[in-house]
Fold:
Amino acid sequence: MNRTILIATDYSLESLNILKKVLKEKDESGDQHQYHILLVSGYDTGDSIRDLLFNTKGTIFNKIRPKEFCEAYSIIRNKYPHLISKITCDIFTGSFQRTFNQYVKSNSIDEAYFSPSVRSKEKGMFDMIPFIKKNKDLESREISLDIREKLPERGKLAEIFVEV
Structure:
């Protein structure tokens, strides 16, 4: 049976530690489900007509998602092929709770995971955690991450191999 998981991300390699931790727990518990993983970040598209007309998800991802992020989640996907059916990157552009609730419903999201240590810092991005916490139909869980200040692999693809 397929289930859908939303993971709040800022498209940093550190944020993929949430995905690694969740999949590790599900693997150790012997979970038999296949998961569609939605890596979602809040993004304010602004009010400019020009931006709304000419910006696509692709151009926005080119601004906020580094190439290493895609390579890193592919590595994670290869580690847990029995748990992952699909990984999708997406942005949530709404600003109201009811819009987020509709987003959850239309994507059939069953579970959501977030970490308070992963905060969107890029221009135009906003925090998804308040929306996730306020949604009553969504099973959500906070993941604590131990972010080491001095990590030689920080920001590099090798960071994904550090144990969480």
